[in-house]
Amino acid sequence: MEKSKVFLETKEIVKKFGEVTALDHVSFQVRRGEIQGLIGENGSGKSTVSSIIFGMLAPTSGSMALEGKTYRPKSPLEARANHISMIVQEKDTIDMLSVAENIFLGEEASFGKGGFVNTAKMNEAARMALNIILAVKNRQNI
């Protein structure tokens, strides 16, 4: 696939919780081969826009496109079926699971077969994902 092709696009996303506007016309694109981070102060809408993309919340208005097609996931499972994942904030993790198990919750079958999970393979994939996040964070000096 062409690296510069737009993978995900949000257009004018608005999210209101009653009278509170959490997102006010958020638009951005993520292209294939890019690594992007959402950076902002607490309450700036990072988790809200991520939750909309991941299917945990529905936008009040606006639209999204995934590889040029309308994208409006109704659940995280639907988002994952479309190759969208989200590493959630600490408060949303499941205490009895490891970091790797929390990251790949619902995707265990991709790390094994016959009902057995290759935890070493899962841990390595989690390590790689977290290293990418750390590299982005370090590049932004945050």
Set down the secondary structure blueprint:
Elements lengths: L5 E12 L2 E12 L14 H8 L7 E6 L2 E2 L5 H6 L17 H5 L8 E2 L2 E2 L1 H22 L2
Antiparallel strand pairs: 1-2, 1-3, 3-4, 5-6
Q: Can you tell me about this structure?
A:
With 142 residues, this protein is α+β, with helices and mostly antiparallel strands. It folds into two domains: 84 residues, P-loop containing nucleotide triphosphate hydrolases (Rossmann fold, 3-Layer(aba) Sandwich), CATH 3.40.50; 56 residues. 29% of the residues lie in helices and 25% in strands. It has four helices and six strands. A four-stranded antiparallel beta sheet has the order 2-1-3-4, covered by helices on one side. Strand 5 and strand 6 form a beta hairpin. 11% of the residues are buried.
What keyword list fits this structure?
142 residues, alpha+beta, Rossmann fold, 2 domains, four-stranded antiparallel beta sheet, two-stranded antiparallel sheet, 4 helices, 25% strand
